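stage 2 :: seqdesign
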């Protein structure tokens, strides 16, 4: 599994679909990257376990909360889940950009 590269990721939140550009560079069982979204740009680090990526990020807009991501990469597609703090879970999908 190679998740390296640029991705367009969509999270289906209770406030509607939110899209972000994600760049990923794996190294063994970890990765670094950058997320660009309507909430701004953030550097991220995460874990790689086979074909699954996990990472978290803190946001302040529309309110402060921690987002926790789990995504399975299959070729040029990504599917998974984003835990939205106290607001439950949202499905995510992605494709190579």
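stage 2 :: out
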């Amino acid at each position: 599994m190679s998740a390296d590269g640029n991705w367009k990721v969509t999270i289906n939140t209770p406030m509607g679909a939110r899209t972000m550009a994600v760049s990923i560079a794996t190294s063994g069982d970890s990765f670094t990257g950058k997320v660009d979204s309507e909430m701004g740009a953030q550097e991220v680090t995460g874990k790689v376990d086979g074909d699954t990526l996990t990472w978290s990020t803190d946001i302040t807009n529309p309110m402060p909360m921690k987002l926790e991501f789990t995504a399975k990469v299959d070729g040029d597609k990504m599917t998974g889940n984003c835990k939205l703090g106290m607001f439950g879970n949202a499905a995510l999908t992605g494709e190579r950009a």
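stage 3 :: structure notes
- Residues 49 and 71 are 10 Å apart (CA to CA).
- The chain has a mean pLDDT of 93.
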